Here is the input.
Amino acid sequence: MKSHLKSAATLLPFFFLTSFYHLSLSASDSFVYGGCSQIKFDPTSSYQSDLNSIMASAANSASFSAYNNFTTNKSVYGLYQCRNNLPLSECSNCIQTSINQLRALCPNSCGGTIQLQECFLKYDNISFVGVLDTSLIYKRCSPEFSADSGFYERREEVFREIQQVGSNGFSVGSSGTIQGMAQCSGDLEPSDCSACLIQAVGRLRSLCASSVSGDIYLGKCYVRYSSDGFYSSPHGSSNDDGAGKTLAIIIGLLAGVALIIVFLSFLRQVCGKGGGK
Ligand SMILES: *[C@@H]1O[C@H](CO)[C@@H](O)[C@H](O)[C@H]1NC(C)=O
Ligand SMILES: *[C@@H]1O[C@H](CO)[C@@H](O)[C@H](O)[C@H]1NC(C)=O
Here is the structure.
């Protein structure tokens, strides 16, 4: 553990140095956060093939569904969730990118989680499917504060609107120039989804104060609002080339390694037979 912290700490300057580039590349598959369990599986065990099978199922499913869950012999569990209004071709691309990044980020880890801008992917050897998780994983509040006297009122209108999610656990809303969106992981019951969103909105109020934009990612849901809009950045614009993508992935991985320090404590520390439960 000590040596993990040390090597991750040496990467922190890279994280801060590169986060600027990270933010400037508005690719739909840009990295938000990632984390791995500390416990590794034996690469010669059947865990690897079960995990491969989960990942193959997710990659396959994402071209026809925004959400799905999987298990292999109850040894590995996995699920993914794309932003629900994302075209399925983009969902499929996003999940493929997630799989590649998670493999690089969490080699031989019993559990791993990755959130890109447009999709979420998680696997573990302990079932987490259908389980509400409101732990705070990641927050981002803009450093600019709104000077608009009607800001709080309009943001509350947006919060009220986006908490009315449909059966797909997704919603968008707006008031004035403020836009918002909410997304639950598809495995949550509607009541658990509501409970998760209430927590997320409460954290936005308390943590982001009057920031002009804010994002809160909890274990099983996220809520975002912005006064600049989310959808203004063109998808697949001409600067979204291969080199840019590769850079984004490398930067994302570095950022991810740095974030593991923060995120490790959220993940279970056992993986394999006989632990947990
Ligand atoms: C998980 O997937 C199975 C099989 O497709 C499905 O029957 C089940 O409803 C799913 N569970 C949840 C919580 O989404
Ligand atoms: C998950 O895997 C780890 C490592 O192989 C193991 O120690 C743990 O017991 C496993 N947990 C379950 C529920 O199988």
Summary: The radius of gyration is 18 Å. Residues 136-226 form a domain with the Killer Toxin P4; Chain A fold (CATH 3.30.430.20).
